[in-house]
Amino acid sequence: MHLKTVFINALLAFYACSAMASDIPEPLASIPTLDVPRYMGTWYEIARYPNWFQRRCLKNTRADYSAQADGRVRVVNLCTNKEGEVIEAIGEARQRGGATSPKLEVRFAPAWLSFMPFVWGNYWVIDLDPSYQLVAVSEPKREYLWILSRTPEVTAKAYDELVARLEKKGLDSRKLERTPQGK
Questions:
Q1: What Rg do the C-alpha atoms of the chain give, in angstroms?
Q2: How far is 107 from 72, CA to CA, in rounded Å?
Q3: What is the pLDDT of residue 19?
Q4: 66 in Cβ contact with 74 (< 8 Å)
Q5: So what's the pLDDT on residue 1?
Q6: What are the structural domains of the chain?
Q7: Which residues contact 116 (CB under 8 A, 6 or more apart)?
């Protein structure tokens, strides 16, 4: 009887581990290539996972990207807080890999700290429509996610289709919060 109990417990443990292993998503994949000059310009935040560094951003969140002579990208993030004041954060992004790599790193810490690896955060383009109008950005651990658009609003169809693709990549759409636009 004791051997039977041990066998059943071992079998149950095996099935539990197998079930947990199947719940672990594959490593997050970025898009194959990114045309960085085409990506430059203004992107409006449509939705995001909540995060501590945007906790004061209530609405009208956007990012302005501009190419710099040294190959890096100037990043200007803007949003409106609950008092109606515009908050601005200026940072820098750099590509990881070749000239068409969709994997970037971004920092908002002072330039004199840029030699420290921990001030750089991953910025991976994981979904981008062919016309460069709607994008999803995340990082390998899937802790952060942004949906950005060239316009302050997107159609429900385009948004829902993008969210469905993100779910297939192991991202939790229930955590997404829509970003209000307007006054």
A1: 20
A2: 11
A3: 38
A4: yes
A5: 45
A6: 36-178 (2.40.128.20)
A7: 109
d(CA 151, CA 42): 9
pLDDT recorded at residue 2: 44
Helix/strand/coil for 160: helix
Contact 75, 91 (CB under 8 A): yes
- CA 14 – CA 18 distance, rounded (Å): 6
Closest CA to 79 of 129, 27, 146: 146
Question: One digit per residue, pLDDT tens: the chain, 183 residues?
Answer: 443 433 333 333 333 333 334 456 689 999 999 999 999 999 999 999 999 989 999 999 999 999 999 989 999 999 999 999 999 999 999 999 999 999 999 998 777 777 776 778 999 999 999 999 999 999 999 999 999 999 999 999 999 999 999 999 999 999 999 999 987
Contact (Cβ atoms closer than 8 angstroms) between residue 153 and residue 60? no
Q: What is the DSSP string of 92-134?
A: EEEESSSTT-SEEEEE-S-GGGTTSGGG-EEEEEEEE-TTS-E
Within its chain, how far is the Cα of 103 from the centroid?
11
Query: How many other C-beta atoms lie within 10 A of the C-beta of residue 62?
Result: 17
- Structure tokens that stand for 1 in this block: 């009887």
At residue 36, the 3 state secondary structure works out as helix
Amino acid at 153: E
Tracing tokens 């290539």 back to the chain, one arrives at 33
Tokens of 71: 């190959």
